Amino acid sequence: MKLQEFLSPAPESARRRGPQDRIVSSSRVRLARNLQGIPFPHHAKKPDCIQALEMIQPAVLSLPSMTGAFAETMEELTALEKQILVERHLISREHASKGAGSGLVLGRDETIAVMINEEDHLRMQALLPGLQLQKAWEMIDHFDSALEEHLDYAFDRKLGYLTACPTNLGTGIRVSAMLHLPGLVLNEQIGQIIQSVNKLGLAVRGLYGEGTEALGNVFQVSNQMTLGEDEPRILARLEKVIAQIIMHEENARAVLMEKKQKVVLNHIGRAYGILANAHSISSKETMNLLSLLKLGMDLGLFPGTDRALVDEMFLVTQPGHLQQRHSEKLSAEERDIVRADMLRDSLAGVKRPLSKPPPPTTGAA
Amino acid sequence: MQKLDLCEDCAREHKVDAPTNFKLADMLLGLGAADEVGEAASTELVCPQCGYTQAHFKKLGRMGCAACYQVFGPALEDMLRTMHRGVRHVGKVPRRLQGPAQPPVDVTEQIRQLNERLERAVAQEDYELAAQLRDEIKSLKAKAGGRKVKE
Ligand SMILES: [Zn+2]
Ligand SMILES: [Zn+2]
Questions:
Q1: Quick check: A43 contacting B, CB < 8 Å?
Q2: Which of B4, B15, B17 to probe by mutation at the A interface, max A CB count within 10 Å?
Q3: What's phi and psi for A260, nearest 5 deg?
Q4: Nearest-CB residue to A227 (from B16, B61, B85)
Q5: Cα–Cα–Cα angle for B94, B47, A98, nearest 5°?
Q6: Secondary structure class of A112 (helix, strand, coil)
Q7: More reliable by pLDDT, A206 or A87
Q8: Contact B50, A43 (CB under 8 A)
Q9: pTM (2 decimals)?
């Protein structure tokens, strides 16, 4: 099966809803595991990698939850397909750069994704819309327990699951959530928040993980430590911190609307103006402006407009998805034009934002 | 002092995203100490499983295979302490390694045998032993009830 046929259409994928998804766009729990007796991927020779792949892939596919899954080796995927997987957060950028000896398995509804021979032999994740860390953990925990019946994991009583990099030792767990925080950015509190989150031993990163920018005011918060603490505690700490960040973001929005209403309305109005009227626009600018549009939706400045439209635009204007819609290859300049066309079309039906927020019975919807 | 003993991604991650938090200096100090210990013990540790050397580890910050942890693990402890909340795993354990290492005991059979001994003790009017056996049976039954029956 082709990847395009397997993946749900972009609009559908972007419109998946979950609890608290005004601020938390998605929740993810990832586990790192390795096989005994085979060197870790970065040190393994080609035949070793292939051996690991040939052990892992059938084992994953044999699980009942993987009925109808998509499985492929990385060398069989095109650069465009890999890019789309990265944009959907189904594989990492590191994995996208892998070729022969690496592979992936995707569950039917794109919730479970397994990378084979990334930094570790196995990296499996459960990805859910909105704030659902607990559920994501339960799903991947079950998945892992089922898989462990078929595979001999490298495990040490003292050090736990043995991973290529000592930063993942122990539980091998990475719990993360994507947060949309335009209020904290506009009101210049974000640096402070990042610092205090860091102090708690958690990491804040950009949209695509390690070393990436916080495009569109989307920040990924995740645990950093994996050893010396069990999974429920790691999960609980993150949940607590996320609840606090949500509260701060809500506060920041309220304060902004009270004290700097014109500034906020100006940002949102200009964002709308550019997005709805530009004839060429980069993906980076698009994301940053869409973030303001989304804020405007949350503030009730676009009555009668489906908020999911913005989420959809956020995904489909990214380079891979954009390229996929236009089957012929596009240069960067051409992409910027096509992107602007798409935005103008999509926003044609959206009326310009109100010049005053509606009466403060917010949050009910 | 060595420059970086973390894998490139992680080094970038800590430097770029967590300049104040991650106590990079502490970590490097920790690494320095670990290096000295490692070097004092032997000039060139080699993993017998995968041929990975200490030099590899210093350069990449990653291990070569699971067995590497037995070779380089002891020198790693200071570094782990700065990276993590502890140096001992307390989380999930694969099912095959769970519980006491011995094969599961058949509790029903154990209780049956104790009951036989109890009957004998009562018959012989050894009430002290009987009381002891009765308590033992009681606690075994409680344990068996408390533990989930294996699927
Ligand atoms: Zn690493
Ligand atoms: Zn080794």
A1: yes
A2: B17
A3: -130, 45
A4: B85
A5: 70
A6: strand
A7: A87
A8: yes
A9: 0.81
